[in-house]
Specification:
Radius of gyration: 22 Å
Number of strands: 2
Helix content: 55-70%
Shape: elongated
Strand order of the largest sheet: 1-2
């Protein structure tokens, strides 16, 4: 009886996680579609759009400053910047205070395009937060940050490429991972975790 209850609980956790994962993927996909449908006429990809908008918002900035504000890995960001530079939309100059550092800025054409990007970005951000109170947005950001932390933690507790356990060990490990990853469902669990947002 106890084993059946434990299996039923695990199945419920699996269903909850599947639903959360699907919703997160759907939101990300829908946001990307909303951006792409609006920037296609500008001849930009969604990644190019966000990089241009970030440079326009921050002013002249370093590569690391751009990276800190965008969900792009370094190779992708480097490729996007190279594409924008080849189109003469951004320029790279030497930092006046440190000649080893480079600063990213907009060309005249880039600034003109970025102005349109800024208007679209406002629409996207407004759609993301519409209908939420300030406290709801803060709670949502905290919960999403906790999910990110759970994945960072997963890479520590079960590094990619590590041999998977077999047999009974596998069943125990799966149950443990689902309990561990389910921590974000209860906002009081691990509340001392850092806020990613």
């Amino acid at each position: 009886m106890r084993a059946a209850h434990a299996e039923n609980t695990l199945n419920q956790q699996i269903a909850q996680h599947a639903q959360v994962g699907l919703l997160l993927a759907a939101v990300r996909r829908r946001q990307r579609q909303a951006v792409e449908s609006r920037v296609a006429r500008l001849g930009l990809s969604s990644q190019q759009f966000w990089v241009l908008e970030a440079i326009a918002r921050q002013g002249k900035c370093s590569f690391s400053e751009i990276m800190a504000g965008l969900p792009l890995d370094q190779p992708t960001a480097s490729r996007v910047l190279a594409e924008l530079r080849s189109r003469d939309l951004i320029e790279i100059s030497t930092d006046a205070d440190d000649r080893r550092r480079r600063r990213l800025g907009l060309t005249t054409d880039g600034a003109r395009l970025a102005q349109q990007c800024g208007s679209i970005a406002k629409q996207i951000r407004k759609a993301l937060s519409a209908g939420f109170s300030g406290s709801e947005l803060a709670t949502l950001a905290t919960l999403l940050g906790r999910i990110l932390y759970n994945f960072d933690d997963l890479d520590v507790t079960s590094p990619p490429g590590q041999d998977l356990p077999t047999g009974k060990q596998s069943a125990r490990a799966s149950a443990s991972l689902f309990r561990h990853a389910g921590a974000f469902i209860n906002p009081f669990v691990r509340s001392s975790r850092p806020n990613y947002w």
